[in-house]
User: What shape does this take?
Amino acid sequence: MNFFALAVVKAVDSGTKMEIGDAAITAIFGYAVVFFGLVLLMAVLYITGAIFSNKEKKSAEKEKTAPAKPVETAPAPVPKPEPVLAKGSAGHIKLHDVPDKEAAMIMAIVADTLQTPLNELHFISIKEVNKK
Assistant: This one.
């Protein structure tokens, strides 16, 4: 015989047998408990909502009755000044996946090789090129 069938048979035999009237009363009592809980929860939510709406009304009334404060105008935002570049600087350089330290070394090497002062050179961008 199947194990599941044996478990079902034992479970049915071990329980107390209810008459249809007892089952109906138990079901009605269960439904009543659930609906009472829902009604109680709904009442708590309504009460909480009423408390908060009263607080909002009171704060709105206080704002209306309070004397008007002079409106303080915020100072206009001061634009950030452009950073002062070094004398002879050529501006910004676009670095494409090259760290600042390596870019500085490359510029120094180029200036040394050309025997030209660094402030006279104009670097537009520095990019690593892989040659295979």
Observations:
- The mean pLDDT is 80.
